[in-house]
Amino acid sequence: MNHKLKYILLFVNCLVCYVSYGQTDSITSLAYDLEPVYIQATKLPKPWVKAATSVYQLPTIVKDQLMQNSLQEYLLHSPSIFTLNADNKAQDLRISIRGFGSRAAFGVRGVKIIVDGIPETTTDGQGQLDNLNLGIIERIEVLNNGSSALYGNASGGVINISTINENTFKTKDQFAHLGLGFHAYGGQQYQLTTGAKKNNTSLLFHTNHHQGDGYREHASFQSINFNLRLIHEWSESSRFEVIANYMNRPTADDPGGVDLETFMTSPRSARDRNLQFIAGEAVSQFKGSLRYSGQVSDRVNLVSYGFYSGRDFVGRLPFENSGMIELQRDFLGHGTSLTVDLFEGQTTWKSLVGYEISAQLDDRSRFDNLDGEQGARVLFQDEQFYNAGFCMINDVNRDNFTFNAALRYDFNQIQVQDKLLDNGDDSGSIDLNDFNYSLGLAYELAGAKSLFATYSTSFETPTLNELSNNPDGSGFNPNLRAQSANHFEMGLKGYLKQQSSFQVSLFSIASRDDLLPYEIEKFVGRTFFRNVGSINRTGLEMFLRHPFTDRFSVATNWSYNRFRFTEYELDGEKLCW
After folding, report:
1. Of 38, 347, 383, 447, which sees the most CB atoms within 10 A?
2. What are phi and psi of 4, to 5 degrees?
C-alpha cells in the first residue's frame, strides 16, 4: 500500500463527524457569562480551560437514540481513541488511547476506568465493561495523557464515567422511564429506570436485559444488569451514597476471526476452531460501594470510599491445551483524600493528599478443552495483587497562570501460590513498585482560551493473567517487568464565538519495556507476553464542537498518530532504529 493511500485511510478512520439532537446540555450551550464547566477526572476539580492537559467531555444527550450496544458509541467524540470488539460480547470492548491498551487480547488494559468515583479497573490493570449500565450514563470525561501520578497502575489514559444522580430530581420528585429496543438477528433490549426523592434522600434503580443471535454464526449472547444507587445529602456540602450493581451473562459465544477468503465467500460464518471448541464465556459479578464526600472545615474537604466486587468467570478458548478457564475473583479497596485551600485571593493554592489501597485475589484454574468439554486440570493456583498508593496533587493559580504538580508512589506486591504440585511447585512472587509525577502549566488568553503544556509519567504492570502464562509451561513468569512511559503534550483550547469549543493537542510519548503478545508452536492458540523494547508515539489531535441552537449541535474530531519501535529486543538481540 502506498503512503498516500495509507494517509487517506488514516484520515477517514480518525475523522468523526457527529450530529446530535436532544435536550439542552451545559457542554454545548456555554457562554462566557455562564458558570465554567468543571473537570472532575483531574481529582482537583477545575475549569476545563484551566486544565493543563488534554481532556474531553463527551455529551450523552442523545443516548436514548443510540443502540447502546457498547461504550464505543459514547467515545466517538474523543480523538486518538481506537476501539475493537464492540459486537463481540465474549471478548468485551477493547479500548486504546494513544496506543495504550492495544495489547489487550480481550477487555481493557493500560487505560484506567472510573465509574461514579469508584475504580472499575482492577489492581493489576484489567478492566471489563460488561457490568456498565449504558442507559444511565450522564457524563464522560477522557484524559488522553498519562495519569499514573493521579491513578497509579495502568493509567496510560483515563475514562471517568458518571451516572445519573440526585440532580435528576431538580424538577420532579419521582420518575420512571421504560425503554424497548429491537434490532436485526434476534436483538432485543429492555430497560427500566426509575427513581424517587424524599427530603434529602434519593433512590435510583436501573435494570437492563439484552439478548441477540448476532450477525455471525456462533455469536449469540444474553445478559441482565441491575444497578441501585442511594444518595443522602446531609447538607449542601456533604453527601453519602451507596451503589449496588449485579450483572449476569450466562451466554456469550465467540465466533472468532476468519481469513479473507472465508469472509468473502461466507461473511456470516464462524471460525472452524471456535465452533470445534465451543468458544465463549459465562460470567456473573456483584459490586457494592460506599462513598462519602463532605466539608471538614471552611477550607478542608474529605472524600472517602470503599468497595467490594466478586466475579465468577468460565471461559472456553479455541484450543485444547489449557483452553478452558475457571476464575473466581475478589476485588476490594479503599481510598481517602483531603483537599485543602491553602491560599485564597490573588493567588490560590489547592492541595490534595490521599491514599488508595486495593487487593485483587484470583482463584484460577485451567483445564484442557476437549471440544467444549472439560478435560484434565493443568493449572490450579491462587493469585494475589496488592497495591498501596500515596499521592499529593497541587494546583496554584495566579493572574492568568495555572500550575499543576502531582506526585505518587505505588507499592505493588504480586504473589502466586501453586496448588497443583504434581509437576513441581511453580509458586512465585514479585514486587513492581513505581514512582510517578506530572507537571503542567496553563496560560489563559483573552476570549476564554488557553495555552497548556504537561509532562507526566505512567507505568503498567503485567496483569495476573499475563503473569500466569509462562512459555516454559509453568504457572508463573517472574521475568516480566512493568512497562513505563514519559508523556509530553502541548496545545490550545477554548471557546469561539462564546459557544463553540475547540482543542488542539500535540503529543510525544517515549515508552520502555513494552509488553507485547506472541505465540509459540508448542501451545497453538495460547498467548504469551514479553518485554520487547521501546516505542515512540507522536501525534496531533483536533476537536471542535459547535451548538447551532440549544437543541442542535455538531462535533468533529481528527487525529494523526505515528507509533514506531525505537528499539526491539528478540531472543537477546536488540534492533535499533
Report:
1. 383
2. -60, -45
